[in-house]
Specification:
Strand content: 15-25%
Structural class: alpha/beta
Distance between the termini: 24 Å
Length: about 550
């Protein structure tokens, strides 16, 4: 087994690095299917892992020097439209180059690399299939990306022809996926003179069975059968034809998915990374069984198995995979509402602290039905760890009413939702269903202000906060932050969802002069790593 870190370079205030997110996730799933460990981090590298860098062209010169030896620069940019920067050329002479495009490989060979550049095409991972098309699609044609004169003129022609066009820029994640689900066709229009096929964008669409209309490219290869190709002169008429003919559009959707889903990223990576010999070694078998076990636990705690409906007060009461992926619903039966991305983040971090020997227990403050804590206990079980505990802290009777003297909690309504009150007996019963209720699970019942000041906790490797409110969040930070080990992780579930929680986090960090970068997970959750022992690991 080899440890990998997939590093997304994300300069402060630059949101467009999110265009690498799905490629990072696909790499992660592909590496794991080969028997390796893989963690996605923003702006962080691990000197004890092989680091795959996405967006290396965004690095400042002083940051490039922090990349560990053995790192891989995975280029996802179109080469040839402009000369490569001196900094980027320097990286090619120091590190191994991966590239998604055969035409780019030719350019790398021309400029010279320290080792032969390797073609690592964009491939399919089934975990990326997560957008559910709406039954009623109110957008005829969607285009997302930067705008130039060529793109603008085509969109104007479509609108003039009576097509309902939606154009978006700087939109990623949930908001972009929602637009995709509402759209009948997604456009791929060239921006650069090189006119390479924008597979980085299109791959995610094909994985989710979307009808893609594209201008022709010199490097499309067999993708010409997966998308509808029209030169700019006939693109409007081509879109109109597909919009008039639902059957033809459905055939295109199916054809695109069938082709792309046959391009397994695990097989593509297997050409440049040796798979672990899982069949021939007992260690390999253990590794594979561990992964399968944790995959099943994860699917169960968020209930991707039986797809239970949503029960919140503002969404349709039906299962929606996109909402469950991002933790935007309150499941009727699942043991967690944090969704697949935040659960994956928790699982990855829990395994990371074990494998990198970050000392301390694992803890969640605010547990609902206990699913996240069950996941942490499952990680300990899978790795045979018997000297760490999982701490389960909650009132087990819902959230407190906001105090009048705490302005940041003014108007908070969480205490009015009966769905959030889950008894300690019910949570213990949920642990027991997984066979994970034992002496390594420690319960702290009561308001945080009462239980945390005297909690018998020595060190924490993982502290996950899910208390929603300002007061609850601040109670946790004041009493537990100093118990988090250097190199440990603080995960905040509600940072992007509840203003009171975000205010508490930012105030505490400012007061304690904490400058460790905050990394987003899914638009709601965030995390940071306590940095005292991590000097030189920021890319």
């Amino acid at each position: 087994m080899q440890n990998y870190v997939i590093t997304v370079i994300k300069p402060e205030g630059y949101i467009h690095s999110e265009c690498f997110r799905e490629i990072a996730e696909t790499l992660q799933f592909g590496l794991r299917s080969l028997g390796h460990e893989a963690l996605i981090l923003d702006n962080l590298v691990d000197p004890n892992a092989i680091n795959i860098i996405l967006g290396a062209h965004l690095l400042e010169p002083h940051e490039e020097k922090l990349l560990p030896a053995g790192s891989v620069i995975y280029n996802l940019e179109q080469l040839g439209a402009a000369p490569l920067s001196a900094n980027y050329l320097d990286l090619a002479k120091r590190f191994k180059i991966w590239d998604y495009s055969p035409l780019n490989i030719v350019k790398w060979i021309e400029v010279g690399c320290s080792s032969p550049p390797q073609l690592v095409e964009v491939g399919y991972a089934p975990e990326l299939r997560r957008i559910v098309s709406r039954p009623e699609q109110d957008i005829d044609v969607l285009f997302y990306g930067s705008m130039n004169e060529h793109r603008l003129s085509l969109l104007k022609e479509l609108r003039k022809a009576g097509v309902k066009v939606h154009a978006a820029f700087g939109v990623y994640g949930r908001e972009r996926d929602e637009l995709i689900s509402r759209s009948k066709i997604v456009l791929n229009i060239h921006c650069l003179e090189t006119k390479l096929f924008e597979i980085v964008r299109v791959s995610y669409l094909l994985a989710n069975s979307k009808a893609v209309v594209s201008e022709p490219s010199p490097d499309m290869g067999a993708y010409c059968n997966a998308v509808a190709i029209f030169p700019s002169e006939t693109l409007v008429e081509g879109c109109l034809e597909l919009l008039r003919n639902d059957e033809k559009r459905r055939e295109l959707e199916q054809r695109g998915f069938e082709y792309f889903s046959g391009r397994s990223l695990a097989q593509i990576l297997g050409r440049v990374i040796p798979a672990q010999q899982l069949i021939d070694s007992s260690a390999g078998k253990t590794k594979e069984l561990r992964r399968l076990y944790l995959d099943m636990v994860q699917r169960c705690v968020i209930n991707l198995i039986y797809e239970d409906p949503n029960q919140d007060h503002w969404s349709p009461h039906q299962f929606n995979r996109a909402l469950r992926e991002l933790g935007r619903d309150w499941p009727l039966q699942a043991h967690s509402m944090i969704g697949n991305r935040r659960m994956s983040n928790l699982r990855q971090i829990s395994e990371f602290v074990i494998e990198n020997e970050v000392p301390g227990d694992l803890m969640e403050t605010g547990v609902w039905r206990g699913g996240a804590c069950i996941m942490m206990r499952a990680v300990l079980q899978a790795h045979g760890v018997n000297d760490r505990n999982v701490w389960v802290a909650d009132s087990f009777c819902g959230l407190p009413e906001p105090k009048a003297e705490i302005a940041a909690d003014s108007g908070d309504k969480h205490h009015t939702f009966a769905e959030l009150a889950v008894s300690i007996e019910k949570v213990k019963s949920n642990f027991n269903k997984y066979g994970l209720l034992d002496g390594q699970v420690r319960f702290l019942q009561g308001w945080f202000s009462d239980t945390l000041p005297h909690a018998p906790i020595d060190k924490l490797a993982v502290l996950r906060l899910d208390g929603d409110m300002y007061e609850s969040t601040m109670d946790v930070l004041r009493n537990l932050y100093d118990k988090v080990s250097e190199g440990g992780f603080i995960i905040v579930d509600d940072f992007g969802a509840v203003q009171g929680c975000q205010t508490a986090i930012l105030e505490f960090r400012a007061n304690r002069k904490i400058t460790d970068p905050i990394h987003p997970i899914d638009g709601y959750g965030v995390f940071w790593r306590k940095s005292a022992s991590l000097q030189g690991t920021k890319a």
